[in-house]
Amino acid sequence: MFKDRRKTQRRVINRVAQYQCGLGSLPRTCMVIDISDGGARLYAETELPDTFTLAVTGDGIDTRRECRVVWRLGGEYGVAFTGQPR
To answer: What is the mean pLDDT of residues 24-39?
Structure first.
């Protein structure tokens, strides 16, 4: 059995979100499967860049976070938040 190494508990949200690769680039859509204070699991139909900004809104969540991809498995991605929420 795998040991859960997360520092904070993730909560399932299954919400459509937007990610943006840099200033001037158009936002693209992804799905946030679950999220915690330190990161999230995403699903995207296109390959995510190594770093990007993730925007999640709705149901009391309204945040933009700088992200770094830490694992990739097909269309699923594990990301760590690298900056403070905006």
So the answer is: 94
